[in-house]
Design goal:
single chain; about 400 residues; alpha/beta; Rossmann fold; eight-stranded mixed beta sheet; 17 strands; globular; MeTrfase_14; C-methyltransferase domain-containing protein; SAM-dependent_MTases_sf
Length: about 400
Amino acid sequence: MTMINCPVCESTQTKPFLLRNHVPVHQNIVFDHQEHAVDMVRGELSLFLCNQCGFVFNASFDDTKLNYSSMYNNIQEYSSTFHQYTDELVDRILNNLPHASSTIVEVGCGKGHFLNKLFTRNQAIKGYGFDPSYEGDEILHEGRLVFMKDFYGPSYEHIQADVVICRHVIEHIQQPVELLATIREALRNSPNARVYFETPCVEWIFRNTVVWDFFYEHCSYFSIPSLTMTFERAGYQVERYQHVFQGQYLWFEAVVDHTGPKGQRFIDPASVLALADQYLIRENMMKERWATALEHALTEGDVAVWGAGAKGVTFANLFDPLNKKITCYVDLNPSKQGRFLPGSGHPILHYHSLRSEKIRYVFLMNPNYREEVEALIKEHQLCPTLVDLGKE
């Protein structure tokens, strides 16, 4: 068998973990035409688990299949739940600035929503957003915020950064140590910069057997041990980490380590490996359970799914890939409404359509949004019964 080294710790102690064929390579591209959604580019999800550090990675990942064009849309701020969560992140960052007029850099800023929220709340900070796919005005907030359609790296070492933020980027990167090392090189003249990273937590996926949370766009899945090792191998000192967003994400805070190269520190991944074993035991049982739940719901009426993001797309392509069972998807993002889900081609609608479509059940993809969705259903006097897929 071909030996595959771990991209984080370089160990050869890796083993196949999960295989899914013919999966959509994008979860957050929406299509204007159903046939284009169905005919989208596919790839192979061939996940390996490292026994040395607990890192999970897609050994078959091919970034040439990806196209982060204007069709890509992963904005979650239309949800009051997520909006409240990012408000808390903004408070966390602004309350810990080294000085009033700090310079903030965001790596992989997307369409700039998070930076705009930061700069709206604080009139003294200045900074830059880096993303090759950024679209919009390049200078905002009276010149305090500049967007660069480029990758952040050593060519920008002249920027005196006090804070570097990188949210939901590293999970898209095949060689995460290289990403962090590149950022460190850009901080050559910013020795005291604080570095903040946020990424999905594979421990949460394992613990809750979230079978629809493994997908092609994410080629790297981190636990506390593996992300700690990633930072240390790239030349950082991790100062703080915690689970956030009710455990679904990891939040890491680090600084550049100025003490020089050191030997690789062993970080025990035993708890992560145990969770992975537990996941493998339960995955097929969970898939059978939700396939049965879907079939049972269909005997009583039409079914919709709430959430046309990554979880929803993966759910569709696991349980209704030919678009024969689920009537529609519901999403609060207006840019997705009236379009079609990647891979399966399900229509994406506004929640008002739940009435006209005569939906009996709505499957909820993410338990964090339960209270918000229940409130919307009650406020607008919609009839469907909500089924929380995050509950046993």
